[in-house]
Amino acid sequence: MSAPDPSEQALLVVIDPVARRVDGESVRIARDVLRGGAATKICLPDGPEEVERALARRGRRRPVVIGDDSALLHVVNVLQRRRELAGIPVSVVPVGPLPAVSLARTLGVPLGPVAAARAVLDGTERLLDVLVDESGGVVLGGLWIPGGYGPGGGTDAPAGPAGATGPNGSAEAGEGGATAVEPVDATPGPGCATAESVVGGGGEGHQPWWSPAARTARSALTLLTGPAAAGRVPLPGCTRLRIEADGVLVTDLDQPVTRVCLEAADGGLAELTVHTHDADRPRRQRARRVTISGPAFRYRADNALTGPVRRRTWTVNAEGWRLVLPRG
Fold it and tell me: Which of 104, 221, 226, 313 could join 109 in a cystine, given CB atoms 3.0 to 4.6 angstroms apart?
């Protein structure tokens, strides 16, 4: 780990347009702090192509994202596709409501614009493991698969407050922008995610630039370090999945699962937690590569809903990315 040298810093600051709309004051404060401590080039993208062009032409500038988790994930995935993620320290100044920046908080990034911007300038690079699927998709925090909504888990959560569903079966925000997501069972293991109500974009005018579909469900993924509080509603039903860890069969299609959690752990391994229908306690296993297959299923990785897919393999890339965090 090393701290950036303020005298040599040059930053490419990518400002999420949604962040400018929802909290322009925090964006202005963070921008001013960064300008006061380093040579900065400001990128105000109107679409994903502009972000990709800016990153391709950044030169020696270090990328800084001002925005929520989805904006951070878009930049990280662009760098992964360019095969530059492992070699470039990434910084983020979280801007947005708490559910939308829960991944940044979990990673240890301050939520205040001043503290986060100062961490960009004076912080320390930390090498972190990352999950990468066979298509090159990156998971920074963790992912989970709920069971029991439709055949093979192929549909998503029940409808939100407005009683409607969005594209691909995702829960659509009702009035006020709240989106209902799946309840979770009462005993998730370490690293498993818990679903929360999510503050949505609030209409077409807030369609995020990192997603091609309007009204995509934006779920908060909060990584837990222990059992959840009592009183949560169990997931109804099950999903039939074949799960393999480093080639070893964990569960097969004849043993329905109610929940699967996966996150990068220490030492270049992933922590796999499988809740089965017929067991009181989940199965936990560490592996470098995990493959899940079966009837079409959806999963939530960080803040994004993905699927349906019939097969997906995640591999741990040890120290696969660098995040700038506060010292100490």
Answer: 104
Name, in order, each residue with C-beta under 8 angstroms of 167's C-beta and a sequence gap of 6 or more: 213, 214, 215, 216
For residue 1, the surrounding DSSP H or E stretch is none
Total-model pTM: 0.72
- Cα-based distances in Å from 147 to 122, 190, 284: 44, 19, 18
Q: What gap in Å lies between CA 121 and CA 289, rounded to an integer?
A: 35
Give the strand pairing for 289-301 and 242-245: antiparallel
As its CATH architecture, domain 138-319 has Sandwich (2.60)
CATH of domain 6-130: 3.40.50.10330
Residues 6 or more apart in contact with residue 164 via CB below 8 angstroms: 172, 174
In tens digits, the chain (328 residues) has pLDDT values of: 555 555 468 999 999 999 999 999 999 999 999 999 999 999 999 989 999 999 999 999 999 999 999 999 999 999 999 999 999 999 999 999 988 999 999 999 999 999 999 999 999 999 999 999 999 999 999 999 985 433 333 333 332 323 232 323 333 333 333 333 333 333 333 333 333 322 233 333 333 434 333 223 333 333 332 333 333 344 345 789 999 999 999 999 999 999 999 999 878 999 999 999 888 899 999 999 999 999 999 999 997 889 899 999 999 999 999 999 999 7
The size of the chain, in residues, is: 328
Count of CB atoms within 10 A of residue 309's CB? 16
Residues of the chain with CATH 3.40.50.10330: 6-130
How far the first Cα of the chain sits from its last, in Å, is 11
